[in-house]
């Protein structure tokens, strides 16, 4: 009974709130950034610009894993204890790396990188051949003009449930794309979450080396693929249907190649009473 102790640290609350604030700040970048590019860039250049945006976004996790690898080599209480008195190494299962250091470095970097956004102009010069009706602003203006012509009864605000059901969930292409994205991100998040632990357990690697290997092998090909996809779409000037066929083909090939993971692995450890008998 003397060995039992209830956890008294509330650090997880700060991590939770920090991630919530980070998510709130990150959310506008992708939809508004893509809309910004779509409004003020030539139509044939938009796929390349969007691909560059997502490629740079993939470099963030890559550097994050490399930073995590570096921080995992440092003891958790670095700066507060004498490192010469520590007798264990990062290969020891009792080792705890400086996990908190990455949050400080990442937060400071995010703050500094957000400063240039304050100097972006509200409006850019549109290409000469751009059609006003094809931009988001022109579309909104046309919608506003049409709405003014409607009768007051049709101008009443509608509930969010009606909007979601009629506009969003009623659009088959949007709903299909949403379901596809959920499946892809669910698989990708699970892959990034458990692959380091799998490498530690099955291949006897340290936390630092596992993060380093994932950062340099898994994420760069994804970023390269996104960038090449944007170049291919620009070269062949794909429309909605062409892009859908292209996406389906690449996703099917990725799924087929992913099946090869079932043939890669190690034998289970010999654990008495679990995988082998006590005899």
TrEMBL record:
<protein>
    <recommendedName>
        <fullName>Solute carrier organic anion transporter family member</fullName>
    </recommendedName>
</protein>
<dbReference type="GO" id="GO:0015347">
    <property type="term" value="F:sodium-independent organic anion transmembrane transporter activity"/>
</dbReference>
<dbReference type="Pfam" id="PF03137">
    <property type="entry name" value="OATP"/>
</dbReference>
<dbReference type="InterPro" id="IPR036259">
    <property type="entry name" value="MFS_trans_sf"/>
</dbReference>
<feature type="transmembrane region" description="Helical">
    <location>
        <begin position="46"/>
        <end position="67"/>
    </location>
</feature>
<feature type="transmembrane region" description="Helical">
    <location>
        <begin position="212"/>
        <end position="233"/>
    </location>
</feature>
<dbReference type="GO" id="GO:0006811">
    <property type="term" value="P:monoatomic ion transport"/>
</dbReference>
<feature type="transmembrane region" description="Helical">
    <location>
        <begin position="245"/>
        <end position="264"/>
    </location>
</feature>
<dbReference type="GO" id="GO:0015125">
    <property type="term" value="F:bile acid transmembrane transporter activity"/>
</dbReference>
<keyword id="KW-0406">Ion transport</keyword>
<dbReference type="GO" id="GO:0043252">
    <property type="term" value="P:sodium-independent organic anion transport"/>
</dbReference>
<feature type="transmembrane region" description="Helical">
    <location>
        <begin position="97"/>
        <end position="120"/>
    </location>
</feature>
<dbReference type="InterPro" id="IPR004156">
    <property type="entry name" value="OATP"/>
</dbReference>
<feature type="transmembrane region" description="Helical">
    <location>
        <begin position="173"/>
        <end position="192"/>
    </location>
</feature>
<keyword id="KW-0472">Membrane</keyword>
<comment type="similarity">
    <text>Belongs to the organo anion transporter (TC 2.A.60) family.</text>
</comment>
<keyword id="KW-1015">Disulfide bond</keyword>
<dbReference type="GO" id="GO:0016323">
    <property type="term" value="C:basolateral plasma membrane"/>
</dbReference>
<keyword id="KW-0812">Transmembrane</keyword>
<keyword id="KW-0813">Transport</keyword>
<keyword id="KW-1133">Transmembrane helix</keyword>
